[in-house]
Design a protein that fits this description.
The protein is an all-beta fold and about 100 residues long. It has one domain: Jelly Rolls. The protein is built from no helices and nine strands. Strand 2 and strand 3 (about 20-25) form a beta hairpin. It starts with a strand and ends with a strand.
């Protein structure tokens, strides 16, 4: 399978007084470009398999796994199979993609 550099779909699901949730969807073979969030983010995987590539260690994210990504830590996501997750973050948090 050929890998493609592509941003996954990010859709706002809900907002509260302090938090928001986003639906993250990506197709198998995609590589999410290097990025970070401006606040700590909780990822809860609903389906699929991906490898979260962080500076010091890679983490396998599969269905049912949750993971906390620290604020401002650059990372990318290598999607192995069609992937869906919920991202939970501060209401004013932004996802910033880095330019090479």
């Amino acid at each position: 399978m050929m890998e493609t550099l592509s941003k996954p779909e990010l859709n706002l699901l809900h907002t509260g007084k302090k938090l928001k949730t986003l639906q993250v969807s990506a197709l198998g073979g995609m590589i999410m470009p290097l990025h970070h969030a401006t606040s700590e983010t909780v990822i809860v995987v609903q389906e699929g398999l991906a490898v979260l590539k962080m500076p010091n260690k890679d983490h396998v994210l599969g269905k049912g796994v949750s993971f906390i990504i620290p604020a401002l830590i650059d990372h990318s996501l290598e999607v192995k199979t069609n992937f869906k997750a919920i991202a939970i973050m501060a209401l004013d948090s932004e996802i910033e993609f880095l330019k090479k």
